[in-house]
Predict the structure.
Amino acid sequence: MELLKPAFGLTFWMVLGFLIVLFLLTKFAWKPILNALNERDKSIEDALNAAIKAKDEMANLKSDNEKLLAEARQERDKILKEARVTKDNIINEARDKATAEADRLLTLAREGIHNEKMAAITDLKNQVALLSVEIAEKIMKQQLADDGKQKALVADLLKDVKMN
């Protein structure tokens, strides 16, 4: 049973050694250990605060990005709308110009056709007149080939001149 009960001297020296080690640890090691634990606690808390701050900044950046994206979409829609309006205006102007040019060319063609028609009619009248004169000349030559007929024609002409 002696092995289970320690002697008083051994207990005394163990308690004295423990108190000395406790005193030394309290004096020299306790403060640095507590300071290290406090610093680690503080760094963890700072890291958590920084993470929360970063999370808030990311949320702000995300909302800013969404606003910028919405503005960019609005600007794109505005530019596309202006482009459509400009395209429609250009098409309408080109259509109006083409219509005006077609009308002008049609008018010029009608005038050209009218002028050609009048020239052809005039040429036809001249040819008819020349043919009439030639036919009349041939008929007159045949009728006036006789001397008596010539005298009768001159007498008729003189009667007509005296009456007027």
Remarks:
- Residues 8-143 form the longest helix (136 residues).
